[in-house]
Amino acid sequence: MVPARSSSHAFLRLQRGAPATLAAQLVEQLRRAVLDGVLQPDHLLPSSRELARELGVSRNTAVAAYEALAADGTIVVRPRRAPVVAHVPARAGWQGAARAQPAASAPRLSKSARRLAAVVPPDKLDALLEGRARSRPFGVGLPDLELLPWRILDRCLARRFRAMSAADALLDDPRGAPLLRRAVLHHVAVARGVRATVDQVFITEGSQAAIDLCCRALLDPGDAAWVEDPGPLALRAAVRMAGARPVPIPVDEDGLRVDVGAHRRRGAPRARVAFVSPAYAFPSGARLTLPRRIELLAWAGRAGAVVVEIDYEGELRFDGSPLPSLLGLDMEGVKDRVIHVGSFSRSLFPGLRLGFMIVPPALVRAVAAVRAASTRSPPYLLQAALADFIDEGHFARHLRKLKQATRRRRDLVLAELGRLLPGAVRARAPAGGSVLTLDLPADADDVAIVQALAARGVDALPLSRSTASRAGASRAPGLILGFGAHAEPALLEAARTLAAVVARATGAREQR
Amino acid sequence: MVPARSSSHAFLRLQRGAPATLAAQLVEQLRRAVLDGVLQPDHLLPSSRELARELGVSRNTAVAAYEALAADGTIVVRPRRAPVVAHVPARAGWQGAARAQPAASAPRLSKSARRLAAVVPPDKLDALLEGRARSRPFGVGLPDLELLPWRILDRCLARRFRAMSAADALLDDPRGAPLLRRAVLHHVAVARGVRATVDQVFITEGSQAAIDLCCRALLDPGDAAWVEDPGPLALRAAVRMAGARPVPIPVDEDGLRVDVGAHRRRGAPRARVAFVSPAYAFPSGARLTLPRRIELLAWAGRAGAVVVEIDYEGELRFDGSPLPSLLGLDMEGVKDRVIHVGSFSRSLFPGLRLGFMIVPPALVRAVAAVRAASTRSPPYLLQAALADFIDEGHFARHLRKLKQATRRRRDLVLAELGRLLPGAVRARAPAGGSVLTLDLPADADDVAIVQALAARGVDALPLSRSTASRAGASRAPGLILGFGAHAEPALLEAARTLAAVVARATGAREQR
Asked: Do A366 and B172 touch (CB under 8 A)?
């Protein structure tokens, strides 16, 4: 069927002086007419000369419009003949068919995404999506920007930006920039006793990205993975996303209860991975003792499991010198079972999005392949600037300053809370890091207390949310308080607000 | 059993003037002695005063060493009594046990990682790990750094760095910085006809990161996903990593053969996702015509599938105006099936590691949760600087310059190859983007030709590797050539080298 050629296209309405050119308006309106079925397939269009005359536009405008419509196959332009409308399916037909399907509802999510949705608290996701990021005491994971040497960082960045070469801009080693990998390795060798080669070092977008990589490379659906209990929620989310099962293993004052993890009924002796923070368990601050470390590595050797050492704030021990990392133990057979994960989010700032992991030689290719098929490597520029910052000694100097300030702040907050709060509320002091926990009476509702605090300008995390629910045991309520990011006056004020809210909520009498 | 207290510790060897302090040496050597079983559990150690005298060091040194060893649980310090060695398992015992297990070999990889290892060519991974990144014609995916307005980028970066606030440095919206999401949305609304809201925009670490996110959020093991054939290898790697099955769908001059994809035997009518590059299929340069676009979306509506529009170089069309994106079709029911993926790797440079994706409202929370549990959001600083670069009009100006230069280079390379190469070798010219393909005679070995070219300083990709092997059909040999990143003299020289190598390899006579 070849419909009659229309002499006039009354639906065309061109506006002179509109933001879009006349040709663009013509393209848009003709395409819409085809999609709407106003112009049917095989409809003969006027020649560009006729169309131009009909609409009172220049010949060039009509030619440009027809070329654009031919380019995407809306019309077919033929030499020495009038153009025709192509065989574009009519909107009414296929839209009706699509709507008739039940599948036309929201797209189906993968099992991974659905598992994740089941473990991420909706209010937490809401807070992230509503951009409620704020820096108030006692927020957790915040940096103190006042302590950062901005001028030096700025200089490192500007210098590297100006000197960037083509090879730099192309950077395609999925492990990251060699200069930062060398700088990081040297730093952790000195600061954390790590022994490894630069081949094993990966630069990541922070410690969470490194944890996610470990899950992707090592965990299959149904596998068990040890996680500390209490422990960070985001770690469990990453394990769940891989389809694996986070098995909460209790932490006492000597760190992870390896005996429980290896116990047939109470733990998961055949777990594939153990995630552990030997320097400070979050949030209790407990360190893993040497006997426990050996017990852990011995279990990993027997089980063929991998130990992921999350050293989030490992270098920020301010009481005494830092504890050596698991990779620093340097015991035969052990190094091939340990992945060491570190971050610059706490020592510098989270928006930098830089962290690292050191993997056993046998895992380098597998992790590199995952990186190459996903985010590849962080931006070269930030890697290069950070490498200079470390190599020139600024980072070590900054860490010293940071540790002094953090210790001062811990002492201040502990003293003030000890003075203000009743005996039923016990603050536990860490030897490093930047969080402390406050144990509340067993019947306290820590989630409600956190909400009441937020309304009065003080942030905290409820301890019960970081604790796994266990049959027959209730989750101990408490507050997780970050004390590293704010100067003394703000901390004192927040401590007083906190004491008042806690005292009221627990029915105890506040000390004055 | 309480062993006798040893009066002398002959194994201790302290060196004055060494890089490590005397206390650190003491810690290291005592810890090693415990691990090696030289000092057994419950061994009574000398008091710090006795140890100091014995070794000729200060009392403070001995006290510091004991404190450090007590901190990690190597020894137990008791008030008014000599310290003892803790119950540290002897190395010989547990190492022997670990070695006796077959599991003591390399850690087991996840199925995802093993699947990936099966599809990533080892030589490609070697090249990445050996840092062989280089910018030579006709490398693919390279930027021309000479064309970039470095001074302006530098200014944007420096200004944002100096103005960074605490909230900026904390940035925790997993979708990225609102100011860049707004700038990107405005840009793609104008340049690509995309209609969406800023809520739907995610900033990613490039287009590959966005593709990987789509796979994680939408694909389960065993699911089918359409991929263009020929098409990029990295896309298939991401699909495989999710455990899904990439189903190669042929591309002809009108783009993806939707009819083949929807065919019960030849395609995968129940695929969950179709990955498609409507603006330019890689590497053929074919665009998806309007009839095919509608056919594709109609299939997605019927199948309940999602279409991922990879718009890698969509705005770099230099012949005529850019084709509208699928999200620009603005048809009811369609927008909820389309994810639009873009990148700044080609328009700026890959080391920037910034791209974006626009997802249907129903997927925002799921994708945000995956981001929050993995890499979170790219570095704030680069996002803010890029937002300014776009908002101030520099990006649009740069794109115009880039398109002009790229068209000139395409014309030059095509003319020179046409002049030099025999008729059996056909170059296909794209209307945009930065790669062209050279079809070789059916019996040519394109992998060998690529190796011969590399030895003479010219890069290319073998077309056969981008093509799926299909039963009964051989893979058409050819070369994929990137022409966007180098100035004219280098392109001409490379074209001559290429012509000579190809003519020799195919036995044809080179034209002079």
From this structure: no
Contact A101 B157 (CB under 8 A): no
Q: What percent of chain A is predicted at pLDDT more than 90?
A: 58
Size of interface A-B (CB pairs under 8 A): 432
Q: Give the global pTM.
A: 0.91
Which of B104, B134, B373 lies closest to A212 in CB terms?
A: B373
pLDDT tens-digit series, residues B241-267? 999 999 999 999 999 999 999 999 999
If you compute the radius of gyration of chain B from its CA atoms, what whole number of angstroms results?
A: 31
Q: Which residues of A touch B73 (CB under 8 A)?
A: 254, 287, 289-292
Nearby residues of B352 by Cβ (< 8 Å), 6 or more positions away: A169, A379, A381, B344, B345, B382, B386
pLDDT at B186 exceeding the cut of 80? yes
pLDDT tens by residue, A368-401: 999 999 999 999 999 999 999 999 999 999 999 9
pLDDT value at residue A144: 86
Point out the residue among B102, B351, B374 whose CB comes nearest to the CB of A380: B351
Is residue B117 less than 8 Å (CB to CB) from chain A? yes
d(CA B420, CA B500): 8
What is the crossing angle of helices B488-506 and B394-420, to 10°? 40
Of B295, B308, B307, the C-alpha closest to B260 is B295
Say if the Cβ atoms of A353 and B173 lie within 8 Å.
Answer: no
Q: What are the structural domains, with CATH classification, of chain B?
A: 2-85 (1.10.10.10), 195-374 (3.40.640.10), 397-506 (3.90.1150.10)
Give the torsion sign (CA, A298, A301, A304, A309). positive
Strands A478-482 and A461-462 come out as antiparallel
Select from B89, B110, B319 the Cβ nearest to the Cβ of A219.
B110
Alpha helices in A193-223 (DSSP H): 207-218
Tens-digit pLDDT profile for residues A265-301: 999 999 999 999 999 999 988 999 999 999 999 899 8
Distance between CA atoms of residues B427 and B495, nearest Å:
12
